[in-house]
Design goal:
This protein is of the alpha/beta class and about 550 residues long. It has four domains: about 130 residues, 3-Layer(aba) Sandwich (Rossmann fold); about 170 residues, Reverse transcriptase/Diguanylate cyclase domain (Alpha-Beta Plaits); about 100 residues; about 110 residues, Homeodomain-like (Arc Repressor Mutant, subunit A). It contains 25 helices and ten strands. A hairpin with a 5-residue loop joins strand 7 and strand 8.
């Protein structure tokens, strides 16, 4: 982003080959009041690319249908070369494929023509809010970066390392205590506990730029450490520090052990709430067991570190107390669920299958089962689903990416979501296997027509080649399965799409004809009237266009 001061206009460029459209919309909006400054005005994507190369902009507003390079081509170029540029597309096309392609190129808004001044004003307001938020985020990170650089040079780092050695038991206890005492940190009490605080977002994050992730996680850990230190100091309950893995640890001590447990939990909850309020960060906290001397602190720390593993089943933002009794999960209790899942698949009972999957997820969550043990059961579950579907559909597979995705899921909730998706595919495959060969081929033919209806060359031979079947055989089974001939089905699908375009877009009749597979607009009008009793123009007028 290119913000230099608190309030700054967003630089935008408008690309549309219809100059009257640009002028008309431009006059209806108070661009300056919305915080936008026009820096470029181009007639096509080619000119826009050359302009942006020399004049970086924040926002591009573009039509889709333009000569030389259209709006999608421009969006692709901006996505690859100017990823920080926000793209707004105006289009007369409501087809899902265009919208899907727009998502691929990170288009912020996809607006169907005709667009009103009010609608555009609302879109620009959202864009302005988004860009202002990004600017504030950059400013925040810059501030944290400066503070963090200063922080790493002061004595807090030395104290933190000494505390880490003490808590983890990697150095003689008396030596650590003496070193801390030299910096004014005196650890005295009759009861001690160690709490471990992890930022959920970064602990479980996968993919993306690892370098940027480490940088930002360190900054966020710095924030969490500061919040924790302030709150712990206010309660005179201990000291917070950061270990080498950007985990925040809190060493609690007290001479009032009877009140200690409740007080520690309240402090940890307060830390959670303040971190979320300040940074919208979710943290999980595990409180280790009681120990009565500093040389046993490592036991409390190890207990807390182990408890954090329960986030897989409990979910993020939880507080775990190692003094609480955790019931031992016995997967024998779930052995019968696999049989019930198998029965549900065999009977095609999707409701029963979902009920069993909900029960399994709830059971694992309530018993706080760890990732490895849960995965062992889920792996068996995936194979049961696979085996049941293969009873009727030998082509059904259990891909490696499904197995690895479930195994690496950051929570039981996410893992079960993936299991459900695979189970749903299995139920669909088993349902299809109950069809006759002719019914399956007819269904495949209809799917093919729906995907390729815009091809003016689409015909019986193309379908039969796709299905690897003779034309005479296909015509027979298609008529028997659908009650229609191939041409009737093709015409019905094309007319359905044409009606949608006439109602939902401002495309001209010849453009609609081309999109639904008619090379001759006149013949399209004749076919449309035959199918609907109205000409395309009459139909559009009748349905409010």
């Amino acid at each position: 982003m290119r913000y230099r001061r608190e309030k700054v206009c967003i630089r935008y460029c408008w690309i549309d080959d219809e100059i009257l459209v640009r002028k008309a919309i431009g006059k209806k909006l108070e661009w300056n009041q919305l915080g936008f400054e026009l820096v470029g005005d181009c007639e096509n994507g080619k000119d826009a690319i050359e302009f942006v190369k020399e004049h970086p902009v924040d926002v591009v507003l573009t039509d889709i249908c333009m000569p030389h390079i259209d709006g999608m081509g421009l969006s692709k170029w901006l996505y690859e070369n100017c990823p920080q540029t926000t793209i707004i597309i105006f289009s007369g096309y409501s087809d899902f494929e265009y919208a899907k392609q727009a998502l691929q190129y990170k288009v912020a808004e996809y607006i169907l023509k005709p667009v009103t001044a009010k609608e555009l004003s609302e879109v620009l307001t959202r864009i302005r809010k988004k860009l202002d938020g990004e600017r504030k985020q950059e400013q925040r990170l810059d501030t944290l970066s400066r503070a963090y650089r200063n922080y790493t040079k002061n004595e807090s780092v030395i104290i933190g390392k000494a505390l880490q050695r003490l808590v983890q038991g990697t150095q003689d206890t008396m030596q650590c205590l003496q070193e801390l005492d030299e910096f004014g940190v005196r650890i005295e009490g009759s009861a001690f506990r160690v709490a471990a605080v992890d930022i959920d977002l970064y602990t479980e994050w996968k993919g993306g730029n690892e370098g940027e992730l480490k940088k930002e996680s360190a900054l966020m850990a710095f924030v969490v450490e500061n919040v924790s230190s302030e709150i712990v100091a206010e309660h005179h309950a201990g000291i917070a520090y950061r270990d080498s893995d950007n985990r925040i640890c809190i060493l609690f001590w007290t001479n009032r052990p009877n009140e200690f447990r409740r007080e520690v939990e309240e402090i940890c909850r307060e830390i959670q709430e303040n971190v979320y309020r300040a940074m919208k960060l979710c943290v999980s906290v595990a409180i280790g067991c009681y120990v009565d001397t500093p040389d046993l602190l490592y036991q409390s720390y190890e207990c807390a570190a182990e408890a954090l593993k329960y986030r897989y089943s409990r979910g993020m933002g939880a507080i775990f107390d190692c003094e609480e009794q955790i019931c031992e999960a016995d997967f024998k209790e779930l052995s019968g669920e696999l049989k019930k899942i198998a029965l549900a698949i065999r009977s095609g009972d999707g409701t029963q299958m979902e009920e069993r999957l909900v029960y399994i997820e709830t059971w694992i969550r309530e018993r706080m089962v760890g990732r490895n043990r849960a995965w062992g059961y889920l792996n068996r579950l995936l194979h049961v689903i696979h085996e049941m579907v293969r009873e009727t559909d030998e082509a059904f597979t259990l891909p490696e990416d499904v197995i690895s995705s479930v195994a690496s899921a950051y929570s039981i909730k996410e893992a079960m979501k993936l299991v459900r998706q695979y189970a749903a595919k299995g139920m669909e495959a088993r349902a299809r296997s109950g069809q006759t060969s002719g019914e399956r081929q007819a269904a495949m033919a209809l799917d093919y027509i729906r995907e390729h209806y815009g091809d003016s060359e689409l015909g019986l031979n193309q379908i039969c080649e796709y299905l690897n079947i003779s034309t005479s055989r296909f015509s027979s089974i298609f008529k028997e399965s659908t009650g229609m001939t191939f041409l009737e089905a093709l015409s019905n699908i094309r007319m359905e799409k044409a009606r949608q375009l006439l109602c939902q877009t401002t495309l001209k009749n010849y453009e609609i004809a081309e999109k639904v597979g008619f090379s001759d607009p006149h013949y399209f009008s004749i076919a449309f009237k035959k199918a609907t009793g109205m000409t395309p123009k009459e139909y559009a007028r009748e349905n409010g266009r």
